[in-house]
Amino acid sequence: MELTIVDDKEKIGPVESAVIKVIGVGGAGCNAVNRIIEDYNPQDVVFIAANTDLQALKRSQAETHLPLGRETTHGLGAGGNPKVGEDAANEQKDDIKEFIEGSDMVFITAGMGGGTGTGGAPVIAKIAKDMGILTVAVVTTPFDLEGPVRMQNALTGIERLKENVDALIVVPNQKLIEFAQVEKTVTMQEGFKIADGVLRDGILGIANLITSPGDINLDFADINTIMRGKGEAFMGIGEGKGENMAVDAITNALCNKVQENTDITGATGIILNITSGPDFTMPDLQKILNLVRSNADENVNLIFGHRVDETMKERVSVTIIATGFPPSQKSPSSHYSRPKVDKPNVVSSREWDAMQKVGISSSAAPRASTQIQSEGNAEWGNIEQPAIYRLRGKVPGIRTEE
Q: 233-332: CATH homologous superfamily?
């Protein structure tokens, strides 16, 4: 049998690269997009900034600007209300579809807890996923100083986002600050820059797997296999230097200090990308693979790639993404407890009636009406404002401790 080898690029035709788009939703999401463009400006990724605040949107460095809620917010922002952010994104559904048409993979990045990102990101994610696009979200949760209401909003938004993405990476801002302050006091500006940087690293850590060719290559099909329909994911990036560079790199990647879920135990799908200098050896590779396999599920589908960077002498960088955790295992967002809010000094209707029977006057305790229902959407409610504050001034006697 005659074997014919075709070595003619024109006959083979051009190799199409995957179309990757990154959508920053809301203030934090758009800031993260700016950070990526300022620091790296990757040419193989399309950036879209989506926001209800037109003034903030004008400052975005993304090539595509997507105003959300032209009629809902009139360009003035969502006011920290996720329901407004949700309505604003729904208003622009056709525009969203048009902007992401033809994408193979869409990243959605947002800071959860505010209005536009929390309410809008799940809407955009659902549109992308329904179009058959591999949809990955990388989001943060609020700093403690932002208060319990904002955290409650964030947790609700994350639950909605989980339903509408293929993979979700959640990074708590508070953990970033606690980790950074081990070395120094962090200013507010530095804190937000750190948060932007983690969103940046999360997105580029995955996108570079596809766009940066190597001698053992990873492509979109590999990413699709590991991430499609897999739910919450673990991502770690680590570096090692010197004699133990391989072990140090993978150990640092596995011991991710800024994600709540720092364990890949039970992961059934793993993507591993290794970047090293030309001095990287087969025993180095074996050490990394052995450590990963020993921590994951025994039947893990492990896909790895390797590329050489001539500038990385005696250095190794490892990016690991783990998915497919068993349902019984705690996911990253399950580590967040619902914020506790001090109970207001209000008695129930049953207690009120009992007090009246024994002759306690109305001045002794306020009465809470069981007839008043929360305002806003039945699902979101007006969760930007605790119920007790929504009722103040509408029900005689309702008060809170100042």
A: Tubulin/FtsZ, C-terminal domain (3.30.1330.20)
